[in-house]
TrEMBL record, chain A:
Protein's UniProt keywords contain ATP-binding: yes
UniProt xrefs under PROSITE patterns: ABC_TRANSPORTER_1 (PS00211), ABC_TRANSPORTER_2 (PS50893)
Xref: InterPro entries: AAA+_ATPase, ABC_carbohydrate_import_ATPase, ABC_transporter-like_ATP-bd, ABC_transporter-like_CS, P-loop_NTPase
Protein name as catalogued: Sugar ABC transporter ATP-binding protein
Tree of life domain: Bacteria
UniProt xrefs under SUPFAM superfamilies: P-loop containing nucleoside triphosphate hydrolases
Keyword set includes Repeat: yes
Every ABC transporter domain range: 16-257, 273-515
Keywords assigned by UniProt, alphabetized: ATP-binding, Nucleotide-binding, Repeat, Transport
Automatic annotation (TrEMBL), chain C:
Localization in the cell: Cell membrane
Annotated keywords: Cell membrane, Membrane, Transmembrane, Transmembrane helix
InterPro entries reported in the protein's UniProt record: ABC_transp_permease
Signal sequence, renumbered to the chain: none
GO molecular function per UniProt: transmembrane transporter activity
Name listed for the protein in its UniProt record: ABC transporter permease
Membrane protein topology class: Multi-pass membrane protein
Transmembrane segments: 26-45, 57-77, 134-160, 172-194, 225-244, 256-274, 294-322
GO cellular component labels: plasma membrane
TrEMBL record, chain D:
Transmembrane segments: 6-23, 35-54, 60-77, 89-111, 117-135, 155-175, 207-224, 236-255, 262-283, 289-307
Record localization: Cell membrane
Protein name: ABC transporter permease
GO cellular component, one term: plasma membrane
InterPro entries documented for this protein: ABC_transp_permease
Key words of the record: Cell membrane, Membrane, Transmembrane, Transmembrane helix
Lineage, highest ranks first: Bacteria, Bacillati, Actinomycetota, Actinomycetes, Micromonosporales
CDD domains: TM_PBP1_transp_AraH_like
Organism (species): Micromonospora craterilacus
Amino acid sequence: MSAEGVVAQRSPSVVLEVRGLVKAYPGVTALDGVDLEVRQNEVLGLAGENGAGKSTLLKTLVGLVRPDAGEIYVRGQRVRLRNVVDAANHGIGMVFQEQSLVPNLTAAENIVLGCEGPAIRRGVYRWATMRALAQEQLDKIGSTIDPLARTDSLTFAERQMVEIAKVLRIEQRTHNSPVIILDEPTSVLEPSEIETLFEQVRRLREFASVIFVSHRLDEVLDVCDRVYVLRGGQSVGEVRPADAVAGDLHRMMIGSESHEDHYHGSAVTRDETPRERLTVRGLAGAAFRDVDLDVHAGEIVAVVGVHGSGREELCKALFGAVATTAGEVTLDGERLDLTGPRAACAAGVGYVPAERKVEGMVGPMSVADNMTLAKQRVGCAGPVIVPKRQNDIVDKWISRLSIRTPGRRTAIQRLSGGNQQKVILARWLVGGDVRLLLLDHPTRGLDVGARSEVYRLMRELAGTGVATLLLADSLEEAIGMADRVVVMSDGRIVAEVPCPPDRKPSPLDLVKEMV
Amino acid sequence: GDTDADGSAAAGTCDPADVKLVGQVRNESNPYEASWLDGGDLFAASVGLKQQRLTYDGESTKQQEQIRQILAGGDTTCLVMNVLPNGDSDTLPIVRAADQAKAFLVTQWNKPAELKPADYDRWISHLTYDGVESGRQIADALFEAMGGSGGVIALQGVLDTAAAKDRFAGLEAALGQNPGIKLLDQQTANFSRAEALAVTKTLLTKHGDAITGIWAANDDMALGALEALGQAGRAGKVAVVGIDAVPDAVKAVSESQMTATVSSDGPWQGGIGLAIGYCVATGELDMADITDVQRAFFAEQFLITSKNAGDFLAPKTDPAGFKCDNVFDRVAAPLK
Amino acid sequence: MSAPVTIRPSSDAAVVKGGPTRSESLTSLMPVLALVSLVIALAAAKPGFLSQPSMTAVVDAAAPLAVLAAGATIAVLCGGIDLSIAALASLSSVLLAMWLPTLGGLASVAVVGVAAAAGALQGAAHVFLRIPSFIVTLGGMSLFSSIALVISGAAPVPVIDDGPIRWGFTRIFDVVPSAAVVAVVVVAVLALLIKATPLGSWITATGYSEPAARLAGIPVDPLKIGAFCVSGACAGLAGVLLVARTFSGGPTMADSLLLPAVAAIVVGGTAITGGHGGLWRTLVGALVVTLLRVGLSVVGVSAAYESILYGALIVAAVALTLDRSKVMVVK
Amino acid sequence: MSVRDAGPPIALLVIVVVLSLLSPQFRTTGNALNILDAAAVLAVVTCGTTFVLLLGSIDLSAAGVMGASSLVVAVLVENSRNNLDLGILGILIAVVLAAALGCVSGLLVVLLKVPSFMTTLGVSAIGLGIATLVFDGVQPGVVDPSLRSWATGRLLGLTYLTWIAVVCVLIAWFVQRYTRLGRYAMAIGGAEEVLALSGVRVGPYKVAVFTMAGAFYGLGAVMVTSQLGSGLVQSGASYTFASITAAVVGGTLLVGGRGGVLHSTVGVLLLTVLTNGLVLIGVSPYVQGGVQGLIVVVAVAVAAAPLRHRNQVVK
Ligand SMILES: Nc1ncnc2c1ncn2[C@@H]1O[C@H](COP(=O)(O)OP(=O)(O)OP(=O)(O)O)[C@@H](O)[C@H]1O
Ligand SMILES: Nc1ncnc2c1ncn2[C@@H]1O[C@H](COP(=O)(O)OP(=O)(O)OP(=O)(O)O)[C@@H](O)[C@H]1O
Ligand SMILES: [Mg+2]
Ligand SMILES: [Mg+2]
């Protein structure tokens, strides 16, 4: 158990304290006696592998999950949190891991949703008041969003800001300083947006306590005052960023030595002569134009750029998922049919979408079904499935990629994020015919361990000649993984930076090109 | 099942107490068919039995399913069914099923022309009303009320029913003899009051004051038209006729809001079908004695105008009419 | 073509099977449970109801409904809905009655073909024009009704010689209704087709999450068109079965079967939102709905109470058969 | 107004122009008033349906709820069946009954988690059963002069029914735009899961929406009863699908969270204009249904055309 997790006497500066929290789900113990304390005006980090229980712990703090055992104290007082409103009344609010705004309402409505206060009188909206209330919240975090804009018309980062503005509403509920929980707020933000967010976090620390979760350990160390590490539903220790590095954190998370390196190691086997695999000439679509790009067999090319640079659309366009208006694309010298994903699949292109939950996996379907979804012919005799053959193939890939699942018939939604991602990757590998992989944020939301497994897999695939187009989660990832980095801005390719293992550029070099 | 080779007409040998009576109509939510079932109850009570009331919501498939289910429920040789087939096409399967199960059957209203009770052992009678005649009778009354000239609109019933077609044919026949009358428009309102209301309103806009008479293929539509006239402020200026003699319509006729309607006497229909079947089943009537005309006939119908409407305001059914000697009293004409 | 990737899975030990949990298998038995309890209740109200002829009649009555609903189940599994099936069955009955004299036995095949084409056409309109299937098939419903009315002259079309379609309405060994056999065969063939080929997971994936299915390269558009095509074909076959038992075709003959067919699908436990469900379930659902439709009145429930009971029981049946773990939010 | 919003009104305009060119009777004032009058009941019923659709649910109960309400109001106001003469109270009771039936649908959805498709179908059957019980063999005719005047009385050329419909649409629009119930209904259709995360319990709002829909059906039934002059079991039969069609044609999507009362009202007008116009230009009764169906499909297709894109999900 933790050495420092439990504090014997309650210091007055402790605003939130959790003791012996237990939560079991059928088959998993998500929380196994967690202890935690949050002090006044601090940013507390929470680190742990996928499935370590971070989100579950945080959800108990806002009354969304009822713990099986354990106590929660707010400012020394034992509380029982039945729902989000209860929690808000105690000054605890949370920004959820998956964005939780209602898309068809205005930003203002979302900000006040659930505790409208004077914005609703006797069931009737007072739009002017609501607008003012929302504006006040947005001003706090220095955002310039129009409160009456429909939420689905905002960019992702703007929506994140709305979420934060919304969570700050709890200040109105409590006279004391609030506790604000941010569950993986950065996983979908661009570097510049992350910087803005951190500024807000530091500003929040002035009057509130913040719990911050991220899988990017350097980020955690950067912004937090203290970091708790969770493993298997237990608090395994506390780290002070001042005297720790990411490696230490990771070691605590997994309980053994880490080997994180996404920078290219030495032994990458390559074809001697680079062979052109993908060539893009003058490709144009709604969000990009004049795109010329070559990717060799066995090469990993990362595309970087800010939101709106058009790189996601380009990636989708190469898969036929968004329409193109001009241009020519060839794969191994043959014209690539961009009329739809079906054609791209048939030509040996694979695509791992960023929005895993919506576009990648089919949640209620089994691991096996999800894995064979794109390459249905696998394990078939003619059009007929031969169950034994198909099961064998699926099982082999499950162990090949060490996918942790109770079995091939388990619904994929019951797997941890990293394992879900591996299944989606395996989807393109089971056919044995993939030539080009389009990876849109393949490590989004994955813990360090899962991430390095995905890296390993990408390298292995590259080693066998697969060409990879990578939209990386961070600049470091892009630089680390890629042989070449392509910078996009405003729908055009503005720079190409070679990234050989021995001469990696610095992130700063890239940022210069991006803006 | 066609006629047995030896032509043995089924002799009724049922104990009166063993007879089971079934009356089946579309639904109990319109007054005409509800009164039909009540008539059936009245007859059943008069012989100390109970009628099983069945309704099929105007769904042909449900009617067939019900009939087959009833016929599959044990001994059916003393079963008597008085059935209102949903449409012409529903009669044949009902007849075949009943014949196979040796149940006695009387059908009313709908039957394809080529299908004849005389070809079956257990299908005793089919009785209906001369739709052409009723359509013509009310048309004549209408034209008379209009003074022999003017414009009429016609509201048709459910288009694929014989009743709708025959009645309209009657109107056309009457129009042929009254050159002063012009048929301005004809639309279907599916025998429905609400649809008639909407259609009439539209037609009133279309033809305006040219309309001086409304011919409706049933009373429900006539009543809908009457409402439309009221709402257009033309009540009393346009003559309206219908068919069926539902209570509201008879009342309207007696109050001179409507010109005429035709009564088929629903309660009597509900009783008579069961009575015929009961008499045959118990042997009081011998199939051999039933004439061909009695096996398929037009029953008597009554034109109701303001003169005689008072007599029809309170429907009275005389159980004496259901006695085995009297069951064919209202045979008006052989089926054409 | 250059050599594709050669990364090979190692052949390690097989993985443990993780299958449906016990509660999951239990919910999949619920439709049968609903059916059995309904039969018991009806038999308690009227003992004669359990007799063999009576049961035969129920099974026979359920057959056209089952065929009609089976096809539509596939459209529902894909995440759509087909409201045109009943009108299409009516149109098919008219076409069959009109074509029988000239085409004889081939008429049935022709009718099913035409109905399938009509279904496919709706599917194409839904997919290519991006109109909700609800609207397309609602439009189809009124269109097919109009066509049926016009070509039949708004009158039933009698079948003089029903020889070529007698197979649709006989008793095998005097006990088993041939229509029920047809229904079982249709369901079995469709179920096998889905189970034995990748079609099954294509349909499920499309129903649960169309974006994911598309991005996995599943031919979602042809699949949906196919689903509506099958739905149409089944409607055509249901029309044939109805003609076989009523000896005529009618332009409104099957119209009233729409809501019972959808009810059969839902009572079977298929999620109306798509993805989860199956064809055998619909077969059971059709039996439940038929029992409710005819059983109640035949055991002597009066019209008004029949309607009330039908409403209450059908909701109860769905409450029982629903697999709540498979539907995230109930709409 | 967004592109999506503009489609249906433009379609309505085009249809009106075309029909005006084809039929001189169509373009008379009298006919315009007639159309408004004919649209009144459907407009009120569609107000109810719209809110349910906004939730992402569906409501097939209008037929049954209206039947029950229609008979209840007919026997409670001054009528040809009994001596009751509750007047406005009778109307209120009928609307409350309808709201109660709607509430049952909602409770079944929320408590038993049965999809609304089935609960409302069941409640519709229950409503028809109640109606048949009250009907009891003879149609109760409405004598009550004030209720009868709803259909006959006119103010500024429009019938009272039209005015009632206008008021209902305005109230519904207000509810949708300015009340918590309306906005939450919108939100539930947009992202139901999210509301729980914001501490909003969606159950009560869902039940309230179904209840409100029931109340609109009840009022619609009272209006029909006034029009027809008696209580009819079948008085709501055609409104279930008509109201859903009208809402969807107007741009209230079946998936929920999109459109609203004004959209649906455009749909109501579109359908009513079509029904009226096809009769006036003399389209054969046999093909009217088909033509109407085709036009609806084309109207929706054209309205949806500017929004088409790959990967768009249409259910
Ligand atoms: N509602 C639930 N039902 C069943 N199991 C659950 C549920 N919620 C969480 N779990 C399980 O509890 C464990 C902890 O999950 P949790 O979401 O808290 O992890 P996490 O640390 O937030 O992971 P990540 O970094 O991927 O977000 C996991 O094994 C998860 O599968
Ligand atoms: N009275 C009001 N004052 C200010 N803003 C409002 C008012 N009513 C609604 N809004 C907000 O303005 C935006 C537009 O309104 P709403 O969502 O009702 O539908 P809309 O504009 O018709 O959108 P659509 O029809 O495209 O869905 C909404 O996001 C709503 O929250
Ligand atoms: Mg988490
Ligand atoms: Mg709007």
